[in-house]
Amino acid sequence: MSDVFILNTGQTPPEGTRKPPRQPRWTDTFAYIANPDQFCRHNLNRYGSIFSTGVFGGTTIFVGSAPAVQMALNGDLHYTEIGLPTTTMTMFGEHSLFQRPDLHRQRKQALRSGLAGQAIQGYIPKINTVIGQRLQEWPTQGKIALFPAIEQICFDVLVPLLLGIELEDAYFQGLPIGSKTSLKQCYKTFFDGFYGLLPWKSPLTAFGRGLQARAMLIAFMQAVIRRRRAETQLDPSSDFLAMMLVSQQAEPDGVFTNDLVENQCLLQLWASHYEISGLVSSWMYQVGRHPQFLAELRAEQATVIQDASLSTSLASDSLKAMTLLEATVKETLRTLPPTSTANRRLTQSVVLDGVLYEKGCTLIAEPRIAHILPEHFAHPEVFEPARFLDGGEIDKYAYIPFGGGVHACLGAQLAMVVSKIFASHLLQEFDWQIEETTQFVQFPLKKIKNNYRIAIARGRL
Fold first, then answer.
1. Between β-strands 453-458 and 141-145, what pairing exists: parallel, antiparallel or unpaired?
2. Residue-number span of the structural domain to which 36 is assigned
3. Residues forming beta bridges with residue 181, ordered by sequence position
4. What is the tally of structural domains in the chain?
């Protein structure tokens, strides 16, 4: 990366420095929310990969080039701070990772032990079993509503994995939320409140309803935590919550305060569920649109899973060997990135590659721009998984579906593992057809609309 030059207060920028092109407009927020893809592409074509907007108020600078993305993502405690809208920060809560940049690295490192590496390997049999069982409920032949069908299974995978609870109605007796259906609905209301534009705490607004749902979910997490603490012996390798509780018991004055544990249960399930559901359904859609890859993907499955019994008991080594499958998942994330990265507000003016980014402005590192730059990806409009196979060198700040730098998504590895296992089952058990182009919900998370249906047939491999 080029050097970031941090200006002292009152210091004159170097001669020849220029501001990002384009003037912010009061309509920018509405245009962006209505269709982030179109907003980014239109301005990229007209102004280039760095341009100013009025998105979410003030001056918000969108960046897509790898050096500018790196600058935006790695400036905390030096020249940036979190810059999300007030409503969004309220929904995250005061004990989220965003709220304390001075503790961010310490907390993230502690949480990672339950969401990466050896922990993920221990989760694989559970993920595999639940997906295999739930896919048996899909019809032998017919049409399914794609996103809802995927989302239901992902929820059943992730709740036990992250919270260590059962999803039968009997388990919910005595809890603030009384059923799996109610828990899912509460999460949806919470999710919808994240980018409510009106900061009114009224149930008439999405933000107000989201806050009510948040309070219910925190009460639910508190009750679940009390139950888990009462267990005879907690196994820190069994699920994410158990890891946090065992760590808390070992070091009562350490990272895992009660508030952090409750809030992280809430946010990790929220983020994982919607991100993974969106990714798996988008992958199924993209592969269905490009059926030339299906034969190769199934050949890879046959090679990796030679023993039929392994189809319900995948190992970590098997998943690592599915290189083409992983490439199609990564290419899906490139072509259909689910969201932008976290907004950063400049606490100091900086200069990078002759461009002045002024103090007080907000930066958004936008994958919808980075992922379609020809200097990052040759023929960016083409769905080409081969670019992610061995030998392809991709700048980590050019490919940012999970953010990057110090703000890389904590659950990225979990998302990839769940998606690959889900995709592996689909390739082995089903054929599917994409008969028409879908429409997407564009904001705050890009996902296939609920009413989009595809034709499936059981009987592969």
1. antiparallel
2. 5-458
3. none
4. 1
